[in-house]
Write a structure and sequence with these properties.
With 358 residues, the protein is of the alpha+beta class. It has 9 helices and 19 strands. It is globular.
């Protein structure tokens, strides 16, 4: 399947959509033609079959009365989705009253991350007119609005709302020279960032999902390549009241926008209501013994010397050496000057299309 096939099917689905029935719909599809959902045969076949079923269901509905516009944009390089999203925002400033702007992304977590970041901080009045839907066309799809096209797109077959969502702001120490960074699913430091980095490098040479391979490799070699030092973590709630804190060598520390979140192709690193997780440094034997249980969300009962789960709104991290940071699958390298570093869950900053509740 090619992005043009998706564009054509979306046009037929949205032509019958009862979503936002009193508004003109201006819809932009940002697609990465190199994403696994287009290039991997097994993925592409599944997505195409799902689209056919959705078109069939949509065409059983009445035609939409208000006008609809749908444009396809193809990304060509890293950062291109951001550029496209900014041009869409500029176009929207000339919209007629009563126009609803929807952006659909069809790519991996990187395409979604770039697009959503542009939608943060739009001026009042403009922000409320934009809403996002992230379609599952990557190999992981942990930040998408569903792991299948059916779950992501069937919302357009009925009433919907633009639901406000928070984000995760990562603020390095200004002395390090880095600007604030963003995540919309999970941000983390440590072994899983190394796994993401190596997965991304291998993906550029051999398309596919090598995450599980690098989990196994990291279990043995990560702390030889990036020897953990004690990391200090201080956790505060939404009112700024201090909660848990610790100082200990960690294999990883992860923070989500909420609990019940996954990364690395559906690995539930945040398996319940808590939105942060620390996996502590341990012997090779214990890493090999516990890695599958942690990867499957079986954190509870392993002991607080192995893994701890936390809840909080603001997480203050201090670390004496370099370490990798992962944000929705994208990796940055941090140095000692970037600490202390703050990860904090924001107030709602952007909107996502979701099915209206009865």
């Amino acid at each position: 399947m090619q992005p043009a096939d998706l564009h054509s099917a979306l046009a037929r689905i949205l032509a019958h959509s009862p979503s936002f029935p009193d508004e003109v719909l201006a819809v932009d599809l940002i697609a990465n033609p190199r994403a696994g959902g287009f290039t991997r045969t097994s993925y592409a076949r599944k997505r195409f079959a799902e689209l056919e079923q959705l078109v069939y269901r949509a065409e059983g509905l009445p035609m939409r009365e208000k006008p609809l516009g749908l444009r396809l944009h193809l990304t060509e390089r890293m950062g291109h989705a951001s550029d496209i999203a900014r041009s869409i925002v500029e176009d929207a400033k000339a919209d007629a009253p009563g126009t609803r702007r929807l952006i659909l992304t069809a790519g991996g977590d990187g395409t979604s991350l770039e697009t959503a970041t542009v939608l943060l901080g739009l001026p009042p009045g403009l922000a409320e007119r934009f809403a996002l839907v992230r379609l599952p066309f990557g190999t992981g799809n942990d930040g998408s609005e569903g792991r299948t096209l059916e779950s992501a797109l069937e919302r357009f077959l009925g009433p919907v709302v633009a639901s406000p969502r928070p984000a995760l702001r990562i603020t390095p120490n200004p002395a390090g020279g880095k600007a604030p960074l963003w995540s919309f699913n999970i941000a983390s430091v440590g072994a899983d960032a190394f796994i993401s980095q190596m997965t991304n490098r291998l993906k550029s040479l051999f398309p596919g999902d090598s995450y599980k391979l690098w989990v196994d490799v990291a279990s043995v070699f990560y702390d030889l390549i990036w020897p953990p030092a004690p990391i200090s973590v201080r956790i505060l709630d939404a009112q700024g009241r201090p909660g848990a804190s610790f100082t200990s060598p960690c294999l990883l520390f992860a923070v989500g926008v909420s609990g019940h979140r996954t990364y690395g192709s559906n690995k539930p690193i945040l398996p319940d209501d808590d939105n942060a997780c620390a996996v502590f440094q341990m012997s090779l034997f214990r890493k090999l013994a516990f890695k599958d249980r942690i990867a499957s969300g079986g954190h509870r009962g392993l002991g607080e010397d192995v893994v701890r789960l936390f809840s909080g709104t603001r997480f203050e991290l201090d670390y004496p050496r370099g370490i990798l940071l992962q944000r929705d699958g994208e990796v940055d390298e941090l140095g000692p000057a970037d600490f202390p570093l703050v990860m904090e869950v924001t107030e709602p900053l952007y909107h996502v299309v979701e099915a209206a509740r009865p």
